C-alpha cells in the first residue's frame, strides 16, 4: 500500500488515512465512517477531537464529523442522531490522483439495523481532499420496495483557537429554530458571535458560510443539504458531557449542513446525495 493510503489503528479503532501529493491528509474511522482529522496542505488541524473522546464499539466519538442518519437529533423515534455513527462501515475504495486523495466507505442494512429502522438501504461516505479543500459526501440509495424517509447531517466539529473570538458570517435573513429556547426567529445580524450555549437550525441556507477567526478563515458550503446547524455546548452543558474537557467548548464550533426541516424521501430504486465542502480561505 502506498503512502497515499494507509490503514492504521486510531486509538484502538481501525482507520484509513489518505494523503494527497501536496501533503493534505484526512483520517477516517471505520467506526461510523467518521472523519476525525483533516490537515490541509501546509496547514494545521481544522477539526476538533475531544481529549476525552471515547473510542469504543457502539459509542459515539466526540469530534470530527459524525454522520447523523437516518434521524437528526431527537426529531423522531430513533436513537439520537440515528445509528450509523456507532457501527462499523466497510472501506470500498481509496486512492490518490495527481492533486487529490479520496476514500469511500459503505454501509448496508443488516439484522441489527432493521431491528432499529426496518428498511433496506445502502449508505456511502466519500471524502475527497485537495490542497486547501475537503469535500464530504453522503450518498443513500433505496434498494428496497418501500419508500425511504430520513433526515441527516454531517455533524462537523470545527476547530477554533478561541470560540469567543470566532464569528459566523452568511446567515443573515435566514429563519432559524433556537433549540435552546424552543423559539423561531429570523437572523438579523451580519455575523453570529458565540457567547453562550448555542443550538440553532438555520433553514434553507443556500449561500456559503464563513467561520472567521483572527488571521484565518474557513468557508463552508453545502449541496443538497439545505439546512445548517450551529452548535456549541458552552460551559454548563459541556460540564455534563463526560467526553468533553471543562474548556473543550472553547476549542470547537459545530457548523454542519443537513437535511432536517424537510425529510428526504426516496422512492424504491432511487438514490440521493448531499455534500459539505470546507475550504481554507
Describe the structure.
This protein has a single domain, classed as Distorted Sandwich (Beta-galactosidase, Chain A, domain 5). The chain has a nine-stranded antiparallel β-sheet, with no helix packed on it. The protein is built from two helices and 21 strands. A hairpin with a 4-residue loop joins strand 6 (90-96) and strand 7. With 281 residues, the protein is mainly beta. The model has no long low-confidence stretch (mean pLDDT 97).
Write the layout of secondary structure elements.
Elements: E1 5-10, E2 13-19, E3 25-29, E4 35-39, E5 67-68, E6 90-96, E7 101-108, H1 111-116, E8 122-130, E9 133-141, E10 148-154, E11 157-159, E12 167-169, E13 175-178, E14 183-186, E15 191-193, E16 198-202, E17 209-213, E18 216-223, E19 227-232, H2 234-239, E20 252-266, E21 271-280
Antiparallel strand pairs: 1-2, 2-3, 3-4, 5-10, 6-7, 7-8, 8-9, 9-21, 10-20, 11-20, 12-15, 12-17, 13-14, 13-16, 16-19, 17-18, 18-21, 19-20
Q: Which key phrases capture this entry?
A:
mainly beta, Beta-galactosidase, Chain A, domain 5, nine-stranded antiparallel beta sheet, glucose-6-phosphate 1-epimerase activity, Putative glucose-6-phosphate 1-epimerase, carbohydrate binding, GH-type_carb-bd
In short:
4% of the residues lie in helices and 47% in strands. It is mainly beta and 281 residues long. It has a single domain (5-280), classed as Beta-galactosidase, Chain A, domain 5, CATH 2.70.98.10.
Amino acid at each position: 500500500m502506498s503512502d497515499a493510503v494507509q490503514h492504521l489503528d486510531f486509538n484502538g479503532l481501525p482507520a484509513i488515512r489518505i494523503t494527497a501529493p501536496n501533503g493534505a491528509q484526512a483520517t477516517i474511522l471505520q467506526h461510523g465512517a467518521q472523519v476525525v482529522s483533516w490537515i490541509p496542505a501546509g496547514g494545521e488541524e481544522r477539526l476538533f477531537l475531544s481529549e476525552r473522546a471515547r473510542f469504543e464499539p457502539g459509542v459515539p466519538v466526540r469530534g470530527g464529523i459524525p454522520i447523523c442518519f437516518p434521524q437528526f437529533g431527537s426529531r423522531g423515534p430513533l436513537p439520537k442522531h440515528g445509528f450509523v455513527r456507532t457501527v462499523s462501515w466497510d472501506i470500498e475504495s481509496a486512492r490518490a490522483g495527481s492533486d487529490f486523495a479520496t476514500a469511500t466507505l459503505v454501509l448496508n442494512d443488516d439484522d441489527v439495523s432493521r431491528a432499529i429502522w426496518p428498511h433496506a438501504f445502502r449508505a456511502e461516505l466519500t471524502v475527497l481532499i485537495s490542497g486547501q479543500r475537503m469535500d464530504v459526501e453522503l450518498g443513500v440509495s433505496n434498494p428496497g420496495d418501500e419508500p425511504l424517509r430520513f433526515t441527516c447531517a454531517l455533524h462537523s466539529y470545527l476547530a477554533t483557537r478561541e470560540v469567543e473570538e470566532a464569528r459566523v458570517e452568511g446567515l443573515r435573513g435566514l429563519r432559524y429554530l433556537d433549540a435552546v429556547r424552543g423559539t423561531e426567529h429570523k437572523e438579523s445580524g451580519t455575523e453570529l458571535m458565540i457567547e453562550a450555549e448555542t443550538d440553532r437550525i438555520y433553514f434553507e441556507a443556500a449561500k456559503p458560510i464563513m467561520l472567521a477567526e483572527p488571521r484565518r478563515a474557513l468557508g463552508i458550503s453545502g449541496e443538497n443539504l439545505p439546512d445548517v446547524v450551529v452548535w456549541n455546548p458552552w460551559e454548563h452543558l459541556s460540564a455534563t458531557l463526560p467526553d468533553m474537557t471543562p474548556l473543550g467548548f472553547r476549542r470547537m464550533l459545530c457548523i454542519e449542513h443537513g437535511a432536517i426541516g424537510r425529510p428526504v424521501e426516496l422512492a424504491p430504486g432511487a438514490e440521493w446525495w448531499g455534500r459539505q465542502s470546507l475550504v481554507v480561505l
